[in-house]
Design goal:
The complex is a heterodimer of chains A (about 240) and B (about 260). Chain A is mainly α and about 240 residues long. Chain A has a single domain, classed as MetI-like fold, CATH 1.10.3720.10. Helix content of chain A is about 75%, strand content about 0%. The longest helix of chain A is centred in the N-terminal third of the chain and has 35 residues, at about 20-55. The radius of gyration of chain A is 22 Å and the shape is globular. In chain B, about 30% of the residues are buried. Chain B has helices at about 1-5, 10-25, 35-70, 75-90, 90-105, 120, 125-150, 155-160, 165-195, 210-220, 225-255. The chains are: A mainly alpha (about 240), B mainly alpha (about 260). The interface between A and B is large, with 42 and 42 residues. Chain A: Keywords: Amino-acid transport, Cell inner membrane, Cell membrane, Membrane, Transmembrane, Transmembrane helix, Transport. Chain A: It is found in: Cell inner membrane; Cell membrane. Chain A: InterPro entries: AA_ABC_transptr_permease_3TM (IPR010065), ABC_transp_permease_HisMQ (IPR051613), MetI-like (IPR000515), MetI-like_sf (IPR035906).
Chain lengths: ~240, ~260
């Protein structure tokens, strides 16, 4: 049976010859890479914000180079650069300490790339949010004898959350959309899956629109979740 | 002044950076540069032209998009909001492909299109690239303009109305200039984002900077040299945009 005679429902069916399953698979991969990259990016951002605010002068300048550089170069270029460089650098390190080469799949490289990009933006978001915390709150924590780790966990983190959440929700949306760029290096996430389905069936509009709807659903659901989180984080504050 | 900006540690960092750059220049192979100079300049030209034209066109589209969301008939406001959500909720790469492969595959089947004057343009890739980038800029900026229009103080508009100005005159003389004034500081970031979006057009065979370097990589079998130079070029372009805006802001604040 040729694709030409199939109905839309049959084309989007989950089981082959329908391509719906391939699309959902792509969506899963996209979300995994976005999630992994986002989480790692948050850790990078946390470290970056901490050392930009209270690190030494050299560390501060190096972080500034990282955030400026990443934010000025197109993600597509970074992805190409890191996609080739990260596995090679890692293998170089591993061989030099005598472990031997490991093969790094596109999945891990993808996560690393997204994380490095996200980290640069997350650094700025968190730095802004931490700076917005009244200095006295943190000083009060220190004066009560809290360690800096405890201060961070008990005071800084909850106090910065309301200020950081809008930026962080934006970053998550950027992460999900940036995964689409991995299509260019041949990683079969949602966009490339849609493109392959479109190429095979010659129903370009249908499959690209279907992928668009999936992305849109992800953004709308994420938006709702982050709205709820924001309401939770700002409860007890005046809205206004 | 000089020592406040150049403390010893920074001099050290600059020295390290210079060593790295020198090593790159000496150790890596740059012999291919003269041969591809023309192609790179052509690609650079397309990148800059695409960025500037799509930003201007996108901004012009964003004005009505923002306006109808603040003060338009309900259906129009919903349409504009839907458009912004759609653009902001899907990856630009998908939008580019949707226009080029999706819509582009429909055009040949429309009756009369092949004979029309549009046809020679519809089989090129740059109109799709232009359209996708323009719509994307309009979608993101439309949301910003909505906020800007809504943020103009009510009193200024009421004052204009009480002077008997026509609504269109109010828009032209008060509302629009005040709203644009509010978004100007954010335009710097938006332009850099638009610059970073242009390489996506290389995926539909438009020959911009990114595509040129892709070709160089294929023909010379080199991985890092072309990529690093390309990253540097984008870095410099983004820096130039930021510098231009800083200069404009200084010129703007001098008058006040």
């Amino acid at each position: 049976m040729s694709y030409r005679d199939m109905s839309i429902g049959e084309l989007l069916a989950l089981a082959p010859p329908g391509w719906g399953g391939a699309l959902l698979n792509g969506l899963c991969l996209s979300l995994q890479v976005a999630g992994g990259g986002y989480f790692l990016g948050l850790l990078i951002g946390m470290a970056g914000a901490a050392s930009k605010l209270s690190g030494g002068p050299v560390a501060r300048d190096l972080w500034a180079c990282y955030t400026t550089g990443i934010r000025a170069v197109p993600e597509l270029v970074l992805i190409l650069l890191l996609y080739f460089a990260v596995p090679e650098a890692l293998n170089g390190v591993l061989t030099s300490i005598g472990v031997g080469e490991v093969s790094i799949g596109p999945f891990v490289s993808g996560i690393v790339v997204i994380a490095l990009v996200q980290g640069a933006y997350a650094t700025e978001v968190m730095r802004g949010a931490i700076r917005a915390i009244p200095r006295g709150q943190i000083e009060a924590a220190y004066s009560l004898g809290m360690s800096s780790a405890k201060t961070f966990r008990r005071i800084t983190l909850p106090a910065m959350l309301p200020g950081a959440l809008p930026g962080l929700s934006n970053l998550w949306l950027i992460a999900t959309k940036d995964t689409a760029l991995l299509a260019v290096v041949g990683f079969t996430e949602l966009t490339l899956a849609a493109r392959q389905a479109a190429g095979a069936t010659k129903h370009h509009l249908l499959f690209l629109c279907a992928a668009g709807v999936l992305y849109l659903l992800v953004s709308l659901i994420s938006n709702a979740v982050f709205k709820a989180l924001e309401r939770r984080a700002t409860r007890g504050m005046s809205h206004g | 002044m000089a020592d406040s900006r150049l403390p010893p540690h920074r001099l050290g960092l600059i020295a390290v950076a210079l060593v790295i750059v020198t090593l790159m220049v000496v150790q890596m192979q740059w012999g291919w540069l003269p041969e591809y100079r023309e192609a790179i300049l052509d690609g650079l030209w397309l990148t800059v032209v695409l960025m500037v034209t799509t930003s201007v066109a996108g901004f012009l589209l964003a004005i009505p998009l923002g306006l109808v969301q603040v003060k338009g008939p309900r259906p129009l406001a919903w349409l504009a909001r839907g458009f912004c959500t759609l653009i902001r909720g899907t990856p630009l790469l998908l939008q580019v492909w949707l226009l080029y492969y999706g819509l582009g595959s429909l055009f040949p089947y429309l009756p009369g299109v092949r004979q029309s004057w549009l046809w020679p343009y519809l089989i090129e890739s740059w109109p799709y690239a232009f359209a996708a980038l323009t719509l994307s800029f309009a979608g993101y900026e439309g949301e910003v303009m909505r906020g800007a229009f809504a943020g103009v103080p009510k009193g200024e508009l009421e004052a204009a109305r009480s002077l008997g100005m026509h609504p269109l005159t109010i828009l032209r003389r008060i509302w629009l200039p005040r709203a644009v004034q509010r978004v100007l500081p954010t335009l710097n970031g938006e332009l850099v984002i638009q610059l970073k979006a242009t390489p996506l057009v290389a995926t539909i065979a438009a020959v911009d900077t990114y595509a040129v370097f892709g070709r160089i990589r294929q023909e010379t079998y080199m991985v890092y040299e072309p990529l690093l130079l390309m990253a540097l070029i984008y870095l410099v372009l983004a820096g130039l945009i930021t510098l231009a805006f800083a200069a404009m802001e200084r010129a703007g604040s001098r008058g006040r």
